[in-house]
Design goal:
Ribosomal Protein S5, domain 2; five-stranded mixed beta sheet; single chain; 4 helices; elongated
């Protein structure tokens, strides 16, 4: 099997993933997963699609992450891994879709409007 690549996005974060057969190593921006995401919760989020299908030990994953914060990056990486696994085996899609791993979260930051301090906030109203 050749290298399978996929893309995942969340907020401002973009994850490009390259999946090859291997022993279960996950490398993010040339660092080990545990070094890049020290939080156990974020490591769990990233590994969710692999553990759901029980293939965590079958693939090596190299990921390039860019933009956003650590939570957005972890969720973008989860989406990219899920998409790559579906490219490898399309029969896995219903199981991943049922858990919500195939859904791109479309929420983005609303832009700031002119004459306002933030996107929706207004300056304090003064009657006199």
């Amino acid at each position: 099997m050749e290298v399978i690549n996929a893309l995942g996005r969340r907020k401002a974060a973009v994850a490009r993933v390259y999946v090859t057969p291997g022993k279960g190593n996950i490398t993010v921006n040339k660092k080990d997963l545990a070094v890049y995401f020290p939080s156990g919760i974020l490591q769990y989020i990233v590994k969710q699609p692999l553990t759901k299908l029980g293939v965590a030990e079958n693939f090596d994953i190299k990921a390039n992450l860019d933009g956003g914060g650590f939570k957005g990056q972890a969720e973008a990486l989860r989406l990219a891994i899920a998409r790559a696994l579906v490219k490898i085996n399309p029969e896995d899609k219903p199981a991943l879709k049922a858990e919500g791993f195939m859904t791109r979260d479309p929420r983005e930051v609303e832009r700031k409007k002119p004459g306002r301090p933030k996107a929706r906030k207004r300056f304090q109203f003064s009657k006199r």
